[in-house]
Amino acid sequence: MNSLTGKPISYWIDSTPKTSFPTLSNDIAVDVAIVGGGIAGLTTAILLKRAGKTVAIIESQKMVTGVSGHTTAKVTSLHQLIYADLLQDLGIDKARLYAESNQAALEQVAKFVAEENIDCDFSRRSAYTFAESEQGLKKIEDEVTAALKLGLPACFVKETSLPFAIAGAVKFDHQAQFHPRKYLLHLAQCVQGDGSYVFEDTRVLNVEEEKTSCQVITDKSVITAQEVVITTNLPILDRGLFFAKTYPKRSYIVGAKIDPEQAPEGMFIGSGERYFSIRTTPDRNGLLLLVGGGGHKVGEISKTEEQYQKVEDFARVRFGIDTFDYRWSTQDMVSFDNLPYIGKLTPLSSHIYVATGFSMWGMTKGTLSGMLLSDLILGINNPWANLYDATRATPFATSEGIKQTISVGMHWVGDRFQGLEKSTLSEVVSGEGKLVTIDGEKLAAYRDEQGSIHAVSAVCSHLGCIVAWNSAEKSWDCPCHGARFGCDGVVLHGPAVKDLKVYEP
Length: 505
Ligand code: FES
Prior knowledge:
The protein is an alpha+beta fold. Helix content is 26%, strand content 28%.
């Protein structure tokens, strides 16, 4: 196996300046506090600020370095294959609302870019979902039929600019792609000022809801807000049980220079069991090809270099790529019923709102979350509110829901008994992470290249599952609800808000 060569950082992050928004240093009050500095939070913030509200965005790390900083950044209502299923499962009215809301989100992004004159490589492209074999063709044709019935700009094609043959594809015209950090950091600058704030390196630990307002408790100070919006990929508050209505999925992206003459024109995604996502982006030195794939449930694969390798192999074979400039991975919460959860946290909450379950299509769903949440807060009727109602009946009974519930149960119970026999830190070799049991305590231990051991509790600080090693990212990932921790136990990704306890021998 070839070793991985690309720079291990998202191209979007590497090609934009680091941010330096302030940390919350004293108690403040605003109309709306928004937890999470990605596309859903920023869209909500800017729309509320334009409507006259004061807002504060609170980001635990740096702005737009989470899922929104690691996306493929396709702004499209073509979500691989979904419309035939939605028509069958939900009927034409609800399927049409899904189509319309995602198209509206695409146009909202275009509107912000035009109004704010945002230099973010925004360009209109066609989006395609393709089948390489005849067996996959029926689903493509069904998708075209369903999309046309819903008024979407769809057609069936057999020819594309991809350098390999396909059996057929569904094509949506007039979709878009952009540089997500250039776009979102511009919005962040617009949010700040006139009584509104953007805070970085400030972790929200809890939100206490009172009769007429909320207290947002952070690791620094407290923010008092009339309304609170949680846009942290999976909500950091467990009250809405969103961790039981979704599952976390990781995927991998590589970036490589490509000759513009050889580059495909448009945004593509395959179909079937093993599929890849393809687009290009302008780079300072020319054009980068971005290929994504290798998806799996978080924590289920430890040798994650192999997932990168699969994506690289596809790029090598299909596009003749020799060397790679970038590689990064990301994850998103997949909703069991294909719909995101956007609205009130629980049926009983009056002032706390959430958005989650974007199922890997967060650029439009994050944007439509901001549009819908800002309307809900402003008391404006929004036709999408019922469809995406975050308190709707939980579809545990879907096949994916049942599988996930069983899988979480097995991890929660079964992982505790694995390897309970005594082991020692000396069994952990250089560059490797391993679960070891010392004095009955389950530890996640990593030995760095210099030979030093970094050992932390293996019990996830969210709800107590046992974390699993992710070798390519050198992180401890929780297979239950997707929290991730560094080798030093520091939270990298929620829903956990507390670090793993450092082991003191
Ligand atoms: Fe929920 Fe780990 S993320 S138990």
